[in-house]
């Protein structure tokens, strides 16, 4: 381990680590809810599991807004990875962020096009992203569902990489995001 420079052992800041794991929990809940809730049709009401998908979604949107703002103002600790690995890692993180923004925003636009209000913690109503009945907002529901699979594939790669670092390379990358 002495080969690994000291800065490879540094962790992300506490706020970044808390946000990472909070968002992991919210995203996991969104997959479970999205898969188990009833299919959404023209006259479906946003109740029960669908209401939970929207409420958890609102919390996720808020958490991602904070995370993106935090990330843009706080650089991650430097890595000591080989250049190719560093590039692949950065690219995957960028795509994860892109999907973590696109999937919720498309779901939000779809909900708006159905006239469903999105409320943060049941109180603060988020603005409608698409007019009620809009065709484009409706189509975004399909893109939302399709991109959720892309997000899942990225998460699969990301977790695979974390385990590779932990158990194959035996470096300290996983510890950067934990306690
Ligand atoms: C990363 C976060 C999210 C994931 C992984 C996710 C996942 C899913 C999945 C798997 C479905 C079901 C697709 C199907 O089987 O047809 C779905 C549907 C839906 N989600 Fe999400 N969702 C997320 C965030 C959100 C947010 C933030 C909102 C709104 C605030 C939202 C609103 C909806 C709506 C309205 C549908 C029904 C779409 C339709 O069938 O036309 N989702 N979501
Ligand atoms: C919903 C699932 C997950 C999502 C969406 C996700 C997303 C992300 C994102 C976007 C980053 C980049 C952070 C930044 O540079 O600002 C990151 C970092 C990280 N994640 Fe995850 N993550 C998930 C689950 C996990 C799991 C289950 C593990 C561990 C097994 C993990 C381990 C890590 C590690 C070690 C880093 C830091 C990598 C580095 O050193 O730069 N993640 N994650």
Q: What is the strand and helix layout of this fold?
A:
Blueprint: H1 14-36, H2 48-73, H3 83-113, E1 119-120, E2 124-125, H4 135-169
Antiparallel strand pairs: 1-2
Helix pairs in contact: 1-2, 2-3, 3-4
Bound molecules: protoporphyrin IX containing FE (2 copies).
One protoporphyrin IX containing FE (HEM) binds next to helix 1, helix 3 and helix 4.
Describe the protein.
This protein has 179 residues and is mainly alpha-helical. It has one domain (6-177). Helix content is 64%, strand content 2%. The protein contains four helices and two strands; from the N terminus they run H-H-H-E-E-H. Strands 1-2 form a two-stranded antiparallel ribbon. Strand 1 (119-120) and strand 2 form a beta hairpin. The protein is elongated and about 55 Å long. The two termini are 19 Å apart. The mean pLDDT is 95. Bound molecules: protoporphyrin IX containing FE (2 copies). One protoporphyrin IX containing FE is lined by residues 20, 24, 27, 71, 76, 79, 89, 93, 96-97, 100, 155, 158-159, 162, 173-174, 176-177.
């Amino acid at each position: 381990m002495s080969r690994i420079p000291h800065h490879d052992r540094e962790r992300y800041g506490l706020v970044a680590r808390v946000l990472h794991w909070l968002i992991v929990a919210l995203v996991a809940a969104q997959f479970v809810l999205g898969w188990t809730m009833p299919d959404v049709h023209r006259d479906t009401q946003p109740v029960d599991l669908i209401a939970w998908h929207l409420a958890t979604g609102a919390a996720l949107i808020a958490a991602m807004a904070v995370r993106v703002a935090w990330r843009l103002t706080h650089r991650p600790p430097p890595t000591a990875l080989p250049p190719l690995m560093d590039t692949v890692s950065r690219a995957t993180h960028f795509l994860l962020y892109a999907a973590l923004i696109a999937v919720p925003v498309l779901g939000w636009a779809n909900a708006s096009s159905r006239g469903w209000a999105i409320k943060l913690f049941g109180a603060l109503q988020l603005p409608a992203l698409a007019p009620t009945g809009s065709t484009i907002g409706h189509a975004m529901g399909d893109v939302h569902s399709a991109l959720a699979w892309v997000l899942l594939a990225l998460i699969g790669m990301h977790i695979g990489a974390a385990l590779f670092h932990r158990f194959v390379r035996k470096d300290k990358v996983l510890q950067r995001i934990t306690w």
